[in-house]
Design brief:
By secondary structure, the chain is mainly alpha-helical. The protein contains twelve helices and four strands; from the N terminus they run H-H-H-H-H-H-H-E-H-H-E-E-E-H-H-H. Strand 3 and strand 4 form a beta hairpin.
Length: 330
Amino acid sequence: MGSTPLRRSPSRAATALAVLALLLGARPVLAVEPKPPELYGEITAEQAAEADQFALNNAIATVFHEAGHMLISEFSLPVLGKEEDAVDALAVLLLLEAEDEDFNSVVEDWANVWFLTAGAKEDEEDMAFWDSHGLDEQRAYSTVCLMVGKDKKRFHDFAQSIEYPDYRFEECLVEYQSLLRSWEKVLGPHEAAKGDKTAFKITYAPTRDPRLAHFRELIKTAGVMEMVAAAFSGSYKLKDGIKLTATECGEANAFWSPDDREMTLCYEDLLNSAELDAQWYIDNPDGEEDRSEDDTVEDEEAVEDRDVGQPSPPRERDAGSPRAGGSRSG
């Protein structure tokens, strides 16, 4: 099926986002000396850098998820279905439509974090079927569908690594194009006129927790909140005064408050992502999921009986200094 020509929305924000892939902010004034998570002491320096990058990439995806809530509340947009599912999809669309390799990697890590989170929940009480969010594995596979729907060639290996069924590839192409057209139609009337800008208020609140200070420095140096402001200012007719706040919350979370017109990213959310990635390295020292000797050779019957829905956590990746949207191989 041929691709539908892009209109301005939501690609305008995506274009602005691509320009900001390497945006850097000033180093923060620290309340305490930053200290990495204790789990970093059990992994190599390269793996610790990878865990930082994983946390940063997921912070970027998270704030664009919250930006979806922002657009819905600011413009009173209609939502058919669950709002959480809608903004999950919009965040991924914005990142993929930027057509920037760094942000492709952000989306891969966004899928990976849900696989890791699902694997960390061992008892059924953690399976909140009634929650406003989809189950973690559902969110992961929905993200993968959008990935292959956007660029089958680019994300083919990632999809194959989680045994994503081949028949879904063409379906996901249709679903991606349909979703893109829908968001363009809904957001089109709210596009900003040429020269219009929105003034955002950005805050990176200090913290007395050394581990959280580590991630405060990470996202402030990368300019994560500045990235949101630059992507949406001039793209949509948002009124001045929206607050973009990174802070200590007491829980791993992020949220949008319509009444306060404030997006909040919790430092604990980055800590949680980093610890999930670090724990994967600890559990898989050879870069592969642990397998016993008996599992090394599987007969044909065992292969056929294997659960094809088994989550697949992050693979071996090239280490480097964390940066906004830093590239990580699938």
